[in-house]
Amino acid sequence: MLETALHYSHYLLDKAVKTGDITIDATVGNGHDTLKLAHLVGSTGRVIGFDIQEQAIQTTLEKVIADGFKSQVDLHLSGHEEIGSLSLEDESVSAVVFNLGYLPRGDKSIVTTPATTLEAIQHSLPLLKKDGVLLIMVYYGHEGGRNEKDAVLSLVETLPQKDYNVLRYGFINQVNSPPFLLAVEKK
Ligand SMILES: C[S@@+](CC[C@H](N)C(=O)[O-])C[C@H]1O[C@@H](n2cnc3c(N)ncnc32)[C@H](O)[C@@H]1O
């Protein structure tokens, strides 16, 4: 009955993202969130995806084409810190999604890092429209993961309550650094 953090993040996307919306997948990986967002925004919407690994972008592009979503998905082989270079207006995006850590079934030494993750989150916040969400799935079991977790928590915990609702969702009795979700909603 209790949803996993990942399932709960998709429940929030279902509520926040409408046909025609602009959305961002900041860590494309194997493309699960990209495809989810592409389905939700439809052919009139847009999903802008970032990953630093060619393998991730290529695999996801193949899935996007196979599922008929090519028109609404724009994948960038570059770091999510480039979100600040997108020509998007402030308050124009309904969802930004991050999955921290390494690419499942990929090179476990290539992980998201505190400095670039924080930079990308800072660039993302002004882009959120009212009721838009910034969702961060925090995987932190790998080397350096705890530093990134603490840095991200320090940032989102101090976002002003008058502008954002910030929620942490995850199981607290599981072993092995269970992932949790941080959800930031623009008021
Ligand atoms: C946990 S995986 C993402 C999982 C993905 N959401 C999925 O559906 O499979 C994290 C991804 O972040 C990517 N990554 C690491 N640093 C990055 C950066 N600075 N900008 C964008 N992606 C980055 C990694 O290459 C990896 O593919």
Automatic annotation (TrEMBL):
The UniProt record lists the keyword Cell membrane: no
Domain of life: Bacteria
Annotated CDD domains: AdoMet_MTases
A GO term for molecular function: methyltransferase activity
InterPro entries referenced in this protein's UniProt entry, alphabetically: MnmM_MeTrfase, SAM-dependent_MTases_sf
GO process terms (BP): methylation
Gene3D superfamilies from the UniProt entry: Vaccinia Virus protein VP39
Pfam (any one): rRNA_methylase
Keywords for the protein's UniProt record, in alphabetical order: Methyltransferase, Transferase
Name this protein carries in UniProt: Putative rRNA methylase
Source organism (scientific name): Alkalibacterium olivapovliticus
